[in-house]
Amino acid sequence: MPGKINNRRNVRVFCNVPARVEGPRGPIRGTCRNLSVGGLFFLGGVLPVGKTADFTIELPQGKVQAQGEVRYHYEYPNEGQGMGVKFVRITQEHLEWVTRWVETHEPVPS
Known about the structure:
Layout: E1 13-23, E2 26-36, E3 39-43, E4 52-59, E5 62-76, E6 80-90, H1 92-103
Antiparallel strand pairs: 1-2, 1-4, 2-3, 3-6, 4-5, 5-6
């Protein structure tokens, strides 16, 4: 993201798996564009910054469910709008699935 200072604590990796967020008017289907142990980038719609919502990410080992807080919005020119999300609640089992995914996939360039 041009002009944005990268102060991330966790490595982000490419993901591109189906994802869903529970919005105020029902589920919003999209894609988990990238993933880290601290959060994800959800491509496919946005909720207000600061909003906390339930997210589902469809990894091969199963559906990761987590609660996340929307931290920012960003629009990719050829892919559309999305939101950066910080995990605020995730089970240990699902965090282990995310950790395995991160350890075995290509990092997103800084």
